[in-house]
Amino acid sequence: MAPKRNKFGMSKDEAMTRIKDIEDPMFADHLETYNLAVRGMTDNLKDHEVQRKGVWALALGAITQPRYLIQAEAVEMTIKSMAQWPLDERLQADGCECLRILCSKSEGMRRALAAGGIQSVFNALQQHSEDNRVQQEACGALSRFSQKDTQAVLAKGGYENILHTMDLFANYSWVQMWGCQATTQFSKLDPKRVEGIEGYSKIQATMKAHEVSEGVQVFGREALMTRPVP
User: Fold this and answer.
1) CA 77 vs CA 17, 21, 52, 228: distances in Å
2) Residue 7: what pLDDT?
3) Running DSSP on this structure, what letter comes out for residue 10?
4) Does the pLDDT at position 129 exceed 60?
5) Dihedral through CA 92, CA 94, CA 96, CA 97, nearest 10?
6) pTM above the 0.70 mark?
7) What are the tens digits of pLDDT across the range 43-91?
8) What band does 6 get if pLDDT is binned at 50, 70 and 90?
9) pLDDT of res. 1
10) Measured between alpha carbons, how far is 32 from 35 in angstroms, rounded to an integer?
């Protein structure tokens, strides 16, 4: 019996196979692998299993092949999937991670901003306020977005969210590093606001608590250098 196909094209079975290919070193180094995976996800947008596995695989592939994923429209696919399945905390966390990684490239950032990536991350934050991984990955994504569209992130209360996440995960150096990076961007735009919510004091405390973390120390110093001189 032929595999069941949905009315849009690629069957679920084929889509799952194409998504699985991303994990295979034999296929992971080819643009067509990601084109087919995204096509399978597009054709099965309303299938929860396909989307959950697909976003996870895209986040995995983004680590080593970000340019291929961007070309394959993985940024847009991730945002569509997050919108379709807002209650799935694992999918939302993987989606935020994928956006954080792909937005390290200028084209990935451009595509994410055009497709509403900032709002997608805020939606995840609000929907899953008690999920540790969503909060961490959303913090990282917002920090990344702040490097390009600081005003948009700040206007939605992004800095307050980042500081809150830093408090929740005070022992996690990577979260603290993201917070330091974001503080630098927000301080350049609105130092009074950063001062008003004790952002600089937070950075000083973070640097003291993470003296052995090179990332925290480097980005913490950069953030404090933007502090206005009294």
Assistant:
1) 17, 17, 12, 41
2) 59
3) S
4) yes
5) 170
6) yes
7) 999 999 999 999 999 999 999 999 999 999 999 999 999 999 999 999 9
8) low
9) 38
10) 5
- Percentage of the chain beyond pLDDT 70 is 97
- CA dihedral sign, ordered 107, 108, 110, 114: positive
Non-local CB neighbours of 112 within 8 Å, separated by 6+ positions: 75, 79, 99, 102, 103, 118, 145
- Dump the DSSP string for 141-197: HHHHHHTT-HHHHHHTTHHHHHHHHHHHTTT-HHHHHHHHHHHHHHHHH-HHHHHHT
- Please tell me what DSSP assigns to residue 227: S
Computed over its alpha carbons, how large is the radius of gyration of the chain? 19
What is the spatial distance between Cα 88 and Cα 10, in angstroms, rounded to a whole number? 23
CA end-to-end distance (rounded Å), the chain? 76
Going by C-alpha positions, the residue among 183, 188, 178, 180 that lies closest to residue 100 is 178
